[in-house]
């Protein structure tokens, strides 16, 4: 096994869990916003993308 | 992990949270256009129905207006005809009014003249009443004189009866003496002759012969009124109340004027037997 294969087989590991949590929060916020927009569109217009 | 990566992570997270907040706020406050569309569609349909009903009402109103206009036109035509008739009647009534006013004026003048005549008649009546009073006083006086005269006549009649009785007695004595004289004369061969009366008898009283004098006054008409006329001579020329003047124009008889009021240089009289209306300058005389 060469050195490159050794590099590829190494599993990435977060250097800090704090920034991971921050990225998770940001992702959760974006997902929640998308869900809210979808629910609002569905209840108001009975569809998500088409224009009635 | 480098510091730049950490800063980018933090900035990404903050910007994501910020943008998501903006999106949520916008979506939460966004208008429901479908609901608005539905509402506006229903309002439009209702307004369409209302418009149609209003159009129907408008048509009915227009029909009613046309009918009313026709009836009003007929009424206007009939009223114009009536107005023309009334105008004609008003014209006739105004003409009658003018004629009646003329009659009223003529009657007013006639009434005025009649009033003046009545006043003069009243004056004449008062004068005549005074004359009647004087005549009654004279009648009473004459009645008294008549009574005295009647008493004297009765007394004279008694004297006449006595004188006639004396006369009859004297006639009888005369006839007796005549018989005696005849007898004495016959004895001497003579006849007694009745001697003439010593005292001459008086003749019968004869009524005095009535004499008349012709007045023969001549004048001219100086003023003429409706029922009265004034002549140009008065009491200075011998005109008296009650005289009658005959008014002539040439050979034509006009009327008589009975004098009711006399002034010194003129006299006023009532028109009688009017054949024509007298004029100023016509001749008036007491004898035709």
Key attributes of the depicted protein:
heterodimer, A: 52 residues, mainly alpha, 2 helices, 69% helix, 0% strand, elongated, B: 288 residues, alpha+beta, Thrombin, subunit H, 6-stranded antiparallel beta barrel, rod-shaped
Describe this structure in words.
The complex is a heterodimer of chains A (52) and B (288). Chain A is mostly helical. Chain A has one domain. Chain A is 69% helix and 0% strand. Chain A is elongated, with a radius of gyration of 21 Å. The termini of chain A are far apart. A 6-stranded antiparallel beta barrel of chain B has the order 1-2-5-4-3-6. Chain B has 288 residues and is an alpha+beta fold. The model of chain B has no long low-confidence stretch (mean pLDDT 89). In chain B, a hairpin with a 4-residue loop joins strand 4 and strand 5. Chains A and B meet through helix 2 of A and helix 1 of B.
Helix-strand makeup class of chain A: mainly alpha
Summarize the main sheet of chain A: none
- By CATH, the architecture of the domain at 218-285 in chain B is named Beta Barrel
- Beta-strand content of chain B: 5-15%
The assembly state of the depicted protein chains is heterodimer
The CATH class of the domain at 218-285 in chain B is Mainly Beta
Q: How confident is the prediction overall: mean pLDDT of chain A? A: 81
DSSP helical segment count of chain A:
2
User: Termini of chain B, distance in Å?
Assistant: 177 Å
- When the domains of chain A are counted, the total is 1
> Judging from the principal axes of the Cα atoms, what is the shape of chain B?
rod-shaped
Compile the SSE list and pairings:
The complex is a heterodimer of chains A (52) and B (288).
Chain A: H1 3-9, H2 17-45
Chain B: H1 3-29, H2 33-188, E1 218-224, E2 228-231, E3 244-249, E4 252-262, E5 267-272, E6 283-285
Task: Provide a compact summary of the structure.
The complex is a heterodimer of chains A (52) and B (288). Chain A is built from two helices and no strands. The mean pLDDT of chain A is 81.
């Amino acid at each position: 096994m060469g050195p490159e294969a050794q590099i590829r087989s190494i599993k990435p590991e977060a250097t800090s869990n704090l920034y991971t949590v921050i990225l998770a929060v940001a992702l959760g916020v974006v997902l929640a916003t998308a869900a809210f927009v979808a629910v609002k569109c569905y209840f108001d217009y009975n569809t998500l993308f088409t224009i009635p | 992990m480098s510091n730049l990566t950490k800063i980018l992570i933090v900035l990404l997270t903050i910007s994501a949270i910020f943008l998501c907040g903006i999106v949520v706020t916008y979506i939460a406050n966004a208008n429901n256009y479908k609901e608005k569309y539905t509402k506006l569609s229903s309002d439009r349909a209702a307004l369409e129905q209302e418009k149609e009903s209003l159009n129907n009402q408008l048509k009915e109103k227009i029909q009613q207006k046309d009918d009313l206009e026709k009836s009003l036109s007929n009424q206007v035509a009939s009223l114009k005809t009536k107005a023309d008739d009334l105008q004609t009647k008003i014209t006739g009534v105004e003409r009658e009014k003018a004629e009646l006013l003329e009659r009223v004026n003529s009657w007013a003048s006639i009434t005025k003249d009649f009033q003046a005549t009545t006043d003069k008649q009243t004056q004449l009546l008062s004068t005549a009443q005074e004359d009647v009073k004087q005549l009654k006083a004279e009648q009473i006086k004459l009645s008294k004189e008549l009574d005295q005269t009647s008493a004297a006549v009765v007394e004279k009649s008694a004297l006449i009866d006595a004188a006639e009785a004396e006369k009859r007695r004297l006639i009888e004595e005369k006839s007796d003496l005549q018989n005696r004289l005849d007898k004495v004369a016959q004895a001497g061969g003579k006849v007694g002759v009745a001697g003439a009366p010593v005292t001459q008898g008086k003749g019968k009283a004869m009524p005095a012969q009535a004499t008349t004098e012709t007045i023969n006054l001549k004048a001219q008409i100086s003023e003429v009124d409706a029922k009265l006329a004034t002549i140009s001579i008065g009491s200075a020329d011998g005109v008296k109340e009650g005289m009658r003047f005959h008014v002539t124009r040439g050979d034509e008889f006009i009327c008589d004027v009975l004098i009711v009021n006399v002034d010194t240089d003129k006299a006023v009289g009532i028109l009688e037997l009017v054949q024509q209306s007298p004029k100023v300058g016509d001749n008036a005389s007491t004898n035709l």
